[in-house]
Design brief:
The protein is an alpha/beta fold. It has five domains: about 150 residues, no CATH class; about 150 residues, Rossmann fold (3-Layer(aba) Sandwich), CATH 3.40.50; about 90 residues, no CATH class; about 80 residues, no CATH class; about 190 residues, P-loop containing nucleotide triphosphate hydrolases (Rossmann fold, 3-Layer(aba) Sandwich), CATH 3.40.50.300. The protein is about 40% helix and about 15% strand. The protein has 29 helices and 28 strands. An eight-stranded mixed sheet has the order 21-22-20-23-24-19-27-28, with helices on both faces. It has a six-stranded mixed sheet with strand order 3-4-2-1-5-6, with helices on both faces. Strands 9-8-14-15-7-16 form a six-stranded parallel sheet. Strand 27 and strand 28 form a beta hairpin. Helix 6 packs across helix 7. About 45% of the residues are buried.
């Protein structure tokens, strides 16, 4: 940005804001010191001290903005009859006041700040000027002004406001973590962020439209606007995998909201470990709502009468429990209790009452219990009639027992379906590793079983608001998990139908909504402007849309310039060498940014070995996240990420190996903010070779001859000279 005449004055105002922020932190710490009177004192005094300390810690967390810029803009209002003197407000990450409690910085979520994000030439919302700051920490680097009303002709500059600041932010190198967009929120994004709390809001957004970060800003906005009751009820953000959680985890703390729970679905079921996913046929069965009846039957099958009468030695006599008596105890427990484990004490009591009734000595049931409960036959009888179970134990027994599996499934699933669930029973269910597709079944089991006293409490927690990203991939059973955790039906559902790649991928949002709370009619919003993906890359990726989502239009990229995608042919002999050289060249081109190498399942090991043999440092997405300059990303982990450069390896294999190959390839091609390269030894898929899809004529005319491949390519796609690392052609 060019030097601005107000640069020095605005820098002084920013310095003053930081001084006030430091003073607010010092005041909070001083309040804590007032109550720092040691471990003694009355019980009431200790409770008051703990309460004050907790409030101070919350306040200090809200005021901790780390290395993020405090102030990022200013709005100046036109004078009016009600306000003869023009008012100005600086907009920032958190609200800051001076010692006299005069506002110095207005929180970006405050109603007065709405005009900073939504004012246009057609509707200036009372502004005469909007000012964007380009900052690095406490240093002001530049100023970008937009004039309205009496200050300029009322020209609508389009859908994007503060374009200079926005483009500057978009072109910064990626760090491997998602950054907030609080300084550059656009009008259509702000509408979503400030949408009312009640009910379900569905946000459809194509690649690069900022749907994920908008959903996170919405969570921060709702907590600011509805601090009571949401702070007590809780806000939950659910992501598709741990790589994604690691990628987004800094956004909400940078906005002053550190108390939001961020989780994958497996985190919501205590005491389990989930790794990986099942093959699609198995995942389809486990995600089907028929599994509700399967789990219910599996629990019921563990509530059984004895096979034969029980005889227990008791002094010189035997105590007995008949098969009919045991059946009556089981039936009575089923009638009285909603959850299985809660009924165990009742079964115990009735069991020992029946044994005591058969005694000739008329001993009390408590005496009979004390003298017989350690006997093997008694313990075995109770375990048969009504065992205390955890969800892991229930599924371990179910999957590992052909008899239990047949009994639970044969009325609800076809044989070819339920046989897919079988796997060897493990001796220690506590150490069992499940897949992520098992998680909703474990959750359903927890709902049926209830908490196990010997394992500690395991109640299902509910939340005042739930944000769900990549919701288009969730199965009906996974959506049922979220429904169970919604306190009042308030949710933000985010995704892109064109990027639906899971075993239960949905083709429209109505099939998602039918499994979620319906207390209020749902509302929807669509983000149509692409901020992340440059125009040439988006145009190339859009060729896959007829496969991924017929009829869905791609986002409109605001950055029409940029490097064209590079299509690089190779062969089996040269594959390892070429992938290494392509990675080196692309990494040099995006330096100091980061690069992802996106590979199909069958090539993960081969590409990793090639990079290792060539001494190219790289990380694995499922281990190091995006912390390294080069990250090897299997195709199933790439969704939701953004990087400076992306190398997509063997698109034909992605189309062939993935259940929804068109969607998976579309996702892979739309992760880059700067550069995209495609390496292929197999023939390039027709959708990527079709010049007509990019507007050059359906017969391929208008393209250029590819000097490396000897095939015609569209004029908007470059080929790469691997020796020089430069686009040619």
């Amino acid at each position: 940005m060019a030097e601005h005449p107000d640069l020095i004055a605005e820098q002084a105002a920013i310095d003053h804001a930081y001084e006030c922020l430091d003073h607010m932190r010092d005041s909070a710490r001083a309040r804590r010191r007032l109550y720092d009177d040691g471990p003694g004192g009355t019980h009431q005094a200790r409770r008051e001290r703990d309460f004050v300390w907790e409030q101070v810690e919350v306040r200090l967390e809200q005021l901790d903005i780390g290395d993020q810029s405090l102030v990022f803009g200013r709005i100046d209002f036109e004078p009016t009859e009600e306000r003869p003197s023009a008012e100005s407000f600086r907009i920032g990450r958190v609200a800051v006041a001076d010692e006299d409690f005069n506002p110095v910085v207005v929180d970006w979520r405050a109603p007065i700040a709405e005009a900073f994000y939504r004012a246009t030439g057609r509707d200036p919302m009372g502004l005469r000027r909007r000012r964007h700051f380009a900052t690095r920490g406490r240093q002001l680097l530049g100023i970008d002004d937009e004039l309205f009303g009496s200050s300029a002709a009322a020209l609508d500059r389009g859908l994007v406001e503060g374009q200079g600041a926005l483009i500057s932010a978009l072109e910064e190198a990626r760090t491997g973590r998602l950054s907030d967009i609080v300084a550059t929120i656009q009008g259509e994004q702000d509408v979503v962020i400030r949408s009312p709390l009640p009910g379900i809001l569905v946000v459809q957004g194509g690649p690069g439209t900022g749907k994920t970060v908008v959903a996170l800003h919405r969570a921060a906005f709702l907590l600011y606007t509805h601090r009571f009751p949401l702070e007590g009820q809780g806000v939950l953000v659910v992501g598709p995998n741990r790589v994604f959680l690691n990628y987004i985890e800094q956004v909400l703390p940078s906005l002053g909201e550190a108390g939001v729970q961020i989780a994958v679905l497996a985190d919501l079921v205590p005491g389990i470990r989930a790794v990986g996913r099942d093959e699609e046929p198995v995942a389809r069965v486990k995600g089907d709502l028929r599994m509700i009846d399967v789990v219910a039957r599996a629990v019921r099958d563990r509530e059984r009468a004895l096979r034969e009468p029980l005889r227990v030695p008791y002094g010189v006599q035997y105590l007995t429990l008949s098969v009919d008596e045991s059946a009556a105890i089981v039936a009575d427990a089923r009638r009285r209790f909603r959850t299985h484990n809660a009924a165990r004490r009742h079964v115990d009591r009735r069991f020992f009452e029946a044994l005591a009734a058969s005694s000739r000595t008329e001993d009390e049931p408590s005496v009979v219990r004390e003298r017989t409960r350690h006997l093997t036959e008694v313990r075995m009888a109770l375990e048969r009639m009504w065992p205390v179970l955890t969800p892991s134990e229930l599924l371990n027994d179910l999957y590992g027992s052909p008899g239990l599996l047949r009994s639970a499934c044969e009325r609800h699933l076809y044989r070819e379906e339920w046989t897919l669930l079988a796997r060897p029973r493990q001796p220690d269910a506590g150490r069992l590793v499940f897949t992520h597709d098992d998680v909703p079944l474990l959750d359903e089991a927890l709902e049926r079983l209830g908490p196990s006293s010997r394992r500690g409490p395991a109640e299902v927690r509910t939340y005042g608001h739930i944000v769900v990203d990549e919701a288009q991939d969730l199965s009906p059973m996974q959506l049922r998990m979220l429904d169970r955790r919604s306190l009042n039906g308030s949710m933000t559902i985010v995704g892109d139908i064109a990027q639906a790649t899971g075993a239960w991928a949905h083709d429209d949002w109505s099939s998602v909504l039918e499994h979620l709370p319906d207390r209020r009619p749902p509302s929807s919003a669509e983000l149509r402007i692409g901020y992340r993906v440059p125009g040439p890359i988006m145009d190339f990726a859009a060729r896959v849309l007829p496969l991924a989502a017929p009829g869905l239009a791609p986002p409109e990229s605001i950055r029409r310039s940029g490097e064209p995608p590079a299509v690089v042919p190779t062969d089996e002999v040269s594959f390892d060498h070429d992938v290494v050289e392509l990675v080196r060249g692309e990494l040099a081109a995006v330096e100091p940014g980061n690069l992802a190498v996106v590979v199909p399942r069958t090539l993960v090991d081969r590409v990793a070995a090639a990079l290792e043999a060539a001494d190219v440092p790289f990380g694995l997405a499922n281990r190091q996240g995006l912390e390294q300059e080069v990250t090897l990303v299997p195709i199933w982990l790439v969704k939701g990420l953004e990087l400076d450069g992306v190398v997509v390896v063997e698109p034909a294999a992605i189309l062939e190996e993935e259940a929804r190959g068109g969607q998976a390839l579309y996702v892979a091609l739309t992760r880059s903010t700067k550069r995209l390269a495609v390496l292929h030894a197999r023939p390039l898929p027709d959708v990527l070779r079709d010049a007509g899809a990019a507007g050059s004529g359906g017969d391929g005319s208008g393209g250029d001859e590819d000097p490396l491949r000897g095939e015609r390519t569209d004029a908007h796609v470059a080929t790469l000279d691997l020796d020089g690392g430069r686009p040619v052609g």
